[in-house]
Amino acid sequence: MSRGAAARRGAQPDLFAPPLLPGLAYRDNVVTETEEAALIERIEAAQLTPFQFQQWEGKRLTRSFGWTYDFQTGRFAPGDPLPDWLDDIRARAARFAGIDTQALEQALLIQYGIGAGIGWHKDRPVFEHVIGISLGAPATMRFRRRNSSGFERASAELAARSIYHMDGEVRNDWEHSIAAMDEPRWSVTLRSLR
Fold first, then answer.
1. Does some domain include residue 18?
2. Cα 29 to Cα 43, 61, 85, 134, 169, distances in angstroms
3. 3-state helix, strand, coil in the chain (%, to 5)
4. d(Cα 57, Cα 131) in Å, to the nearest integer?
5. In what order do the strands lie in the sheet with 49-53?
6. Is residue 158 part of a domain?
7. Nearest to residue 178, comparing CAs of 58, 57, 67?
């Protein structure tokens, strides 16, 4: 079975094989179950607000630190500093990505309600490295890239307590989305600036 077919069927990629997509790295168990529970508690206490995109309100709650992007106005601006309780997970994410911890200048906390997902998009061009930590329910991250016959597609299963890193081709050339889920999920996304 090809790597693309394995990904579409939800199989975990071989850690020693080439990545599913150039620039995409993944690892299970970046945090323990105890750390996961503590992170979820911190996220829920972080004064999250409903995600707004123009006149549309998403089924997820969010809060940004370091930098904020307003989807109503297109304004990118400094935000509240990253809280100290993110220091350890930020350092782990930086080690995983092979970058300096201080390069991760933006954090996005998300609480996904039942039936929530994220539609097709690319992260804002101002960001370079995108690193996500998945908490709670597993999720399917989908990828697509337009080609002459429509779209080339792939997917990756994100287990609870896992981490992924998008850089280079997968970050710049592919759109991604998160399929809607039947159970609650939380995530911490850390980004560096270009």
1. no
2. 19, 24, 19, 10, 25
3. 20, 45, 35
4. 24
5. 24-27, 163-166, 127-136, 185-193, 104-112, 56-65, 49-53
6. yes
7. 58
Quote the number of domains for the chain: 1
100 within a domain of the structure (yes/no): yes
Q: Which two tokens stand for residue 171?
A: 């970050």
Q: Does 145 reside within a domain? A: yes
Q: State the residue range of the domain holding 105.
A: 24-48+55-193
Q: What is the pLDDT of residue 73?
A: 58
Q: Find tokens 């904020």 and name the residue.
A: 68
Q: Digits of tens for pLDDT over the chain (194 positions)?
A: 233 333 433 344 444 444 579 999 999 999 999 999 999 999 999 988 876 555 565 668 889 999 877 656 566 678 899 999 999 999 999 999 999 999 999 999 999 988 888 888 898 888 999 999 999 999 999 999 999 999 999 999 999 999 999 999 999 999 999 999 899 999 999 999 98
pTM for the model: 0.84
- pLDDT of the residue at 176: 94
d(C-alpha 109, C-alpha 63), whole Å: 5
CATH assignment at residue 108: 2.60.120.590
- Residue located via tokens 């908490």: 135
In this structure, the number of other CB atoms found within 10 A of the CB of residue 118 comes to: 20
Tokens of 137: 């329910």
Non-local CB neighbours of 135 within 8 Å, separated by 6+ positions: 31, 36, 39, 40, 43, 160, 161, 185, 186, 187, 188
